[in-house]
Write a structure and sequence with these properties.
This protein has 452 residues and is α/β, with parallel strands linked by helices. It contains eleven helices and 19 strands. A hairpin with a 2-residue loop joins strand 11 and strand 12. Helix 1 crosses helix 7 and helix 4 (151-163) packs parallel to helix 5 (185-194). Residues 38-401 form the Aminotransferase class V domain.
Length: 452
């Protein structure tokens, strides 16, 4: 495809599908000018929907401790919190008796489930998983399967391993956080059940981009995070069958998680309370629930068209650049969400990310994306780049990224960069940061992978 992608007459989804905070955020550049910040890092943490932010402000005056308070505000907060369970259950198409447990994030949800899986079986997972859906299973009997060259072959490999017996849980991602490629979770659930196993889906990436149908696809458990679903208020959720959860190890020992307590013994509660010890994140749960309502109100056709056009435009534009390689897991074209992984020949991924930020006002992710086994298998042991987008994205975001990459390839770096505490930064930092957010070069994080 030619540079016609930049012709405004060809663009359909020029505007955001839903307003988000920070959509017009000014970003200072290293040359002293300012541009609109381009957020292409939705897969790490999505911005708050404007409607969610407004909603939190409206309910904040009623915030109080929940469940055992007789006061007016306490009763309202309790209703708000418990009603959020129903809203989230409806959003994922859950069964009437599915438990809805609020957590901190997807990682917290999967660790909670890991303490509830019966001990007599093993957990099976793919090598393409985010660490959140890999590390919790290492603490118990487990097996892994290497994803094959195609989705179909991968499903066959999982079927073969499940047929060998001894597995009681299949843990899979709904969509890769590295490449955006989507797995057929309904089909995988059918395979798991045929061999007497259950399935848990890490939907941290899938839920913000696709409708979920836990009941229709016969998914046993699903986990996702508010901060990726346009509600960055510190809440995540685990939804699924209650029997394992009611018999499992309480995730957080503390007040509210018990029936009775003596100085030397305890009788634990069942239901969500068993795993929600301590004062819950009422506002986080309410924000997450409201975000699901906003998303549910969108036209699915418009939603998918908006995202599909942006992804197609970006991949086509990157494909026009011989120096850029787009990475994916499967050799065939598959369904994919708004996540694109790539690298620029001759440049370290972290250096490209620093350049795009300092010289073009573009934010995207570089590194190993908390998926070390997958990056190694893709031949990217030192990491790559990931551009991701969502409801607040616009065609201009794609154009800005492609323009920045063309400038890099044609003209090289516009300033000098150095490695400070493991991260590339401008050798001389001239950008101003808000007074309330003092900035020290290198503190952007030296961790080997992102924490999404």
């Amino acid at each position: 495809m030619s540079n016609a992608i930049l012709d405004q007459t060809t663009l359909v989804s020029a505007d955001p599908l839903a307003p988000v905070l920070g959509g017009e955020l000014p970003a200072p550049l290293i040359d002293g000018t300012t541009v609109r910040y381009v957020n292409l890092d939705y897969a790490a943490s999505a911005p708050a929907l404007q409607e969610v932010s407004d909603y939190v402000q409206s309910v904040l005056p009623y915030y109080a401790s929940v469940h055992r308070g007789a006061g007016y505000a306490s009763q309202i907060s309790t209703s708000l919190y418990e009603n959020a369970r129903r809203i989230v259950r409806d959003f994922v198409g859950g069964r009437a008796d599915d438990a809805v447990i609020f957590t901190r994030n997807t990682t917290d949800s999967l660790n909670l489930l890991a303490g509830c899986v019966p001990s007599e079986g093993e957990v099976l997972y793919l090598d393409l998983e985010h660490h959140a859906n890999l590390l919790p299973w290492l603490q118990r009997p487990h097996r892994s399967v290497t994803a094959a060259d195609t989705v179909d072959a991968t499903a066959v490999a999982l079927d073969r391993e499940l047929a060998a017996g001894g597995i009681n849980l299949l843990a899979v991602t709904g969509a890769s956080n590295v490449t955006g490629e989507v797995l057929p979770i309904g089909r995988l659930a059918e395979i798991a059940h045929a061999h007497g196993a259950r399935i848990v889906v890490d939907a941290a990436q899938l839920a913000p981009h696709r409708r979920l149908d836990v009941s229709g696809d016969e998914i046993d458990y699903v986990a996702f995070s508010g901060h990726k679903l346009y509600a960055p208020y510190g809440a995540g959720v685990l939804v699924g069958r209650p029997d394992w959860l009611d018999a499992g190890t309480p995730h957080l020992a503390g007040g509210g998680a018990v029936k009775t307590v003596r100085v030397d013994s305890v009788s634990w509660a069942t239901g969500p309370a068993r795993h929600e010890g301590g004062s819950p994140n009422v506002l986080g749960a309410a924000a997450l629930a409201h975000a699901t309502q906003v998303i549910s109100g969108l036209s699915e056709a418009d939603w998918q068209r908006h995202e599909g056009e942006l992804r197609t435009a970006l991949i086509d534009g990157l494909s026009d650049l011989p120096e850029v390689t787009v990475h994916r897991i499967f050799s065939e074209e598959t369904d994919a969400i708004g996540v694109v992984n790539f690298s620029v020949n001759g440049y370290d991924a972290g250096l490209v990310a620093a350049y795009l930020s300092a010289e073009h006002g573009i934010g995207l992710r570089d590194g190993k994306f908390c998926a070390h086994p997958l990056l190694k298998r893709l031949g990217l042991p030192s990491g790559s780049l990931r551009a991701s987008f969502g409801l607040g994205s616009r065609q201009d975001d794609v154009e800005r990224l492609l323009g920045g990459l063309r400038a890099l390839i044609s003209n090289g770096l516009g300033t000098d960069y150095v490695v400070d505490q493991g991260r590339w930064v401008p050798a001389v930092e001239t950008r101003n940061f808000p007074e309330w957010a003092p900035h020290t070069p290198g503190t952007a994080g030296a961790a080997p992978c992102s924490t999404d």
